[in-house]
## 1
Amino acid sequence: MGPRRKPSELQPVGGSGEGQLVLRPSESKDYINELSHEVLCHIFRYLPMKDIMCMECLSRKLREAVTLYLRVVKVVDLCAGRWWEYMPSGFTDNSFLLLLKKMPDLEQLYGLHPRYLERRRVRGYEAFSIPGVLEALQACPSLLGVETSHLELVEAIWNYMPQVHILGKFRNRNGAFPIPAENKLTIPITAKIQTLHLVGVNVPEIPCVSMLRHLYLKWVRLTKPQPFKDFLCVSLRTFVMRNCAGPTNSLKYVPLVTGLASARNLEQLELVRVPFLGGLIQHVVEDSWRSGGFRNLHTIVFGACKNALEVDLGYLIITAARRLHELRIQPSLTKDGVFSALKMAELEFPQFETLHLGYVDEFLLQCKMSHSELVKYGLADVIENPGIITDIGIKVVNEVFSNIKYLLIYNCPHLHNPHHWITDQSRWSRLVDLTLVRCHAIKLESFSQFIESLPSLEFICLDQMFREPPKVYSVYSTKIIVGNTNPDTCNAPWICHNNYDNS
């Protein structure tokens, strides 16, 4: 922006002896430079940091306003609130240090997501490196927390700046399977972090981190022989462990389960391909339920857990009955006996809504690797068979979970007559969403009778259901919106996905 210019004035212009006043074309007025420094600093609060830094070179007054703003700012976001983006490119160690030195009162730095960081400085080469970032962060005496997604950077912060908190949700961005060798992280006991999402990372062990509330492990290789020896996270609310390569000896998962029982506020427990000792959860629940262990669970997921028993799942469900609202059960536990036992317990599940029978993790459904290849990469030896639940078991499901709204059944070949799922005690009165996948043996006529008797049903999803496409649907379509054929019992159209299995 150029310097201020003097506005033009009205000048008389004579023509043919006639005196007239004609306004010359006025030059554009610079309103920004007329604002005070205080107003400009207030405007900067609503602008991304990248735009603020660009204003420094527009005029002297704007440069002064930017300097004043940076001198008092306490919270900075380098990604403008977009956690999935990367910070502006072009930074070097010197330029980043110069920027942070202008912010002596900085307390929280968000969006520190560089696309690439050198591991060490190179003499004579201007680079953006981990030592350079640490030096810049240490130049802020009031710094309390940093948000980043870089594995090596967060480990360096833990080692050299242990007083700094890791803000927001830490999730590394270069996770993959098979796990890259360079993706590794050592978690210290003193780590000041509340949410840790690791995807495709080599981790020696999971220690006792007192502040940790949410722990998500996907494709994580635990390299120590006993990675849960010191596991104790009393503030934990979410624990998800999916397809991780860890110890094959199921006894080494005993500290993990006992440590989870000590987290009295645990709300979400997801175990996929975790080979814990069968019956272990039952004994831990018996010892800890009186003191609050597992009583606040609202989500329970068991998938491809090799040694899991019905009593392990049943004890968890019974303990968490008061708050449970979502349950996903692997095929080996999708049995009539599980729900018959729950019925005999005469429990109430006032908040329960979602049930997934025959649950298989998406990675295992979409993975193109063979079973032997997965085992070679350290995943537990698990081969899932179809669920063996029958019509009798499904009939008991709604007698146990009378408030169920969302039901998904995957690969249960022993289901034949859905009309038999309805009894005087099991009316499915609140069922809103029904999804059936690969249940080939279900009879179409019985299924139609079942659908017509559901008063609250809004959505139906059928996938790979019928060996021969029913006549009422188009053979050439894989997604059909069917009009409401029973307006007295249904409140909305049915949405059907018909991917027929013609084998």
## 2
Amino acid sequence: MSMLLSLSLSLSLSLQTKSGIALLYNEETNNTYDVCLKLTKSCFSPLFFCYWCCAFQGGAEHNVPVVISKIFKDQVADQTGMLFVGDAVLQVNGINVEHCTHEEVVHLLRTAGDEVTITVRYLREVPSFLKLPLGSPGPSSNYSSRVSSPLFDSGVHLNGTNAVSTTCPSPPSPSANEPMKYEKRWLDDVCLPLLMARVSRYKAGADKLRSNCFEVFILEGAGTYILQFCTAAESTDWLQAISTNINDLTQENIKIINKFCSSDDQVVHMGWACESLVSSTSGRTAAFKFLALRGPYFSIFKTPPISAADWGQAETTYNLYEVLFKVHKLWMTEDCWLQARLYLGLEHSPDQQDDSLSFSILVGHGQSHSFRVELASDLAGWEKSFQRAVFMEVQRIRTKSYMCSSQGSVLCFTMDFESGFSCSESTSKTLLWRYKFSQLKGSSDDGKTRVKLLFKNAESQQIDMKELEFANLTAVLHCIHSFIAAKVASMDPLFLCTQTCPGNYTNS
């Protein structure tokens, strides 16, 4: 069976165009079908699935000939009136295929060009395996132990089912043992939009890599399509091309959303990531989540927010200045690291795990979320977006205070973007001490509630230690990190020039 996959996008974007051949894998039937991939530019990003004029079953691996198992109505093979269900294929373009496997015959048909000459022989009775549903045990053979089912249908029927004909034997073929020509045509097509879609090299719900293939998941209709390639390099090439266009569509969608939002509620970045979950009963599992950096929050969704009401339906929401972004391992830009591994054949094992393209979101009370992305460019995008989003949020709030205690006294600890750190009595507001950000020389904590902050005294040049206790120490430490990082960024002209979100930033 052949298929055409076409991915198209908005003409206003500088998107990739690409075409090639792959296989579409059906996990339910364990069958693969030929597919022609086409990445084009248009208003949407569709996958077009187009099928052969007839389908085939059998093969030498089952000690049976390859026979026609289905002829699609009103197509070329049907219009000739010279092919029938049960005809055994003898030759393809003059090449004898009587002792070829199913895969070899299908490959010949797939690569034969637009016009194919085939020689068939009519079998007086429909082979018994054509009367069985797909997946049923077939004729016993020395090869049957190699496969889950001796039956393999190379075609996908237009009605969407895999049922095969159980009718009476076909009438004698007038063209028995005579060659005939027919033109290969696409029979059907399916359009899959890439907006809010995602791709994954991993098996659903697991941390196991697929071999030379990846899954395309579309939001509309919640469908999934597994594309398989001959080499790891080809698989990566297509993965990057499709991912790039999905990301470009997402960026265009962000621009549209931000046109109707205030400057304090802008979307900085959003997209899919796979969250690693640990359960006491099921062990380590994985689930795809849609992440968004918008305004003052980092939000985690089950599905992408489409309407304004959807933005309020996040699974979890955190204050940006109280979260910490952490890359798990070193990575290389432009996906060089991934490309190198794939070309070296290091990703061929389906059981292999890969945590190198992962990051964690550390939140209050020591909690965290661990996410995995597909490409190094995705990881770089999230890291840069977090830096920008936190910078924007600190610039917006300018100051943040937390209640704390020291030696039995209730105090108020404050971070101010202009003046630095300060501590005052909670009731009288009397200032107890103040230090600039640059005076903080170190810190230590007990991992629970207490922290020691070490400041360099500007007058004595000695180290002053301030010991404080907080109800949520992790959130405070993350907030300190956010303010210091934003302060450093505000003094970096190169960083400020890269800011593309609304708002004017001034150094302080």
## 3
Amino acid sequence: MPVMSSDDFTVHDDDCDEVGDGMPISDLPDEVNSIEDLDCQCWNKYSSVDEI
């Protein structure tokens, strides 16, 4: 499940060490169209947003 960081509103995987305090979200934001739109390394284990 994706988690949005409360510090900078970036989206992370729920087991990411970089997320800090955050809020679970049910879906990725609309502006995320591909895995490249997600900045954190925690998404490297996925090959596409369909896997998330």
## 4
Amino acid sequence: MAKKTKKTWKEMSPAARASFVVIGIVQVSLMIAAQRDISRRPAEQINGPKAAWRMASMINFIGPMGYFVLGRKRPGAVT
């Protein structure tokens, strides 16, 4: 089995470069949105400590999506 080598930026096709950039923009946008929401939302409306969610939101796509799905309390939820 031949060993695959990583392609450099110059070796990537234009479509691969564009998708790489778009994915990066989406990832950074999600992280910024999560960080802003954590900053603006009162601690009572967040499940768990804010500091933990700040750290978790730094993990690629999983962290911000986890925060938006699991970290925020829903309006009218019984606690």
